[in-house]
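Duplicate of #3305? Posting structure anyway:
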């Protein structure tokens, strides 16, 4: 698992959203602001923020992406599923079987030979420290199965 090397004075002065910006996670930052999560992620915490890489959002079925972009409540709910109400390093996550998001959703944690997955999503970059928590970058968006309907899959064909 990779981790970002940042001078300690920068780690202390940047909140979760600013750390995401500096890590090149622009789609998540824009989506979090559109969903009304800026105050929570800038001033709340400590949190573990599981941030899908930009390409993870773009890999979603078109119908799901459309809903994320046009229904703020839906976007808010999906993004809140990526926020854990505690600061957990990748090492601490490895010792857990599941974590609970701020929505109450249980997210399974699997660790095998140094590879860490949350609900099947691979942690690509880990332990990006922020003043109010920690960021881990995922290769997929954590979605509720009901988010993928037959119509969404057909629309992608």
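Output from current build:
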């Amino acid at each position: 698992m990779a981790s970002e090397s940042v001078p300690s004075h920068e780690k202390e002065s940047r909140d979760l959203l600013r750390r995401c910006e500096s890590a090149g996670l622009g789609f998540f930052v824009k989506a979090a602001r559109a969903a009304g999560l800026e105050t929570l992620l800038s001033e709340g915490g400590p949190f573990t923020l599981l941030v899908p890489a930009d390409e993870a959002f773009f890999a979603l079925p078109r119908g799901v992406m459309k809903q994320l972009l046009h229904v703020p409540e839906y976007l808010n709910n999906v993004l809140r599923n990526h926020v854990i109400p505690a600061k957990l390093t990748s090492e601490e996550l490895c010792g857990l079987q599941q974590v609970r998001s701020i929505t109450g959703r249980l997210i399974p944690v699997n660790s095998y030979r140094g590879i860490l997955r949350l609900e099947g999503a691979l942690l690509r970059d880990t332990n990006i420290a922020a003043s109010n928590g920690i960021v881990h970058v995922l290769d997929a968006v954590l979605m509720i199965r009901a988010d993928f309907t037959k119509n969404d899959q057909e629309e992608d064909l």
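Confirmed duplicate; merging threads. Confidence is low (pLDDT under 50) at residues 2-11, 147-157. The chain has one domain: 2-143.
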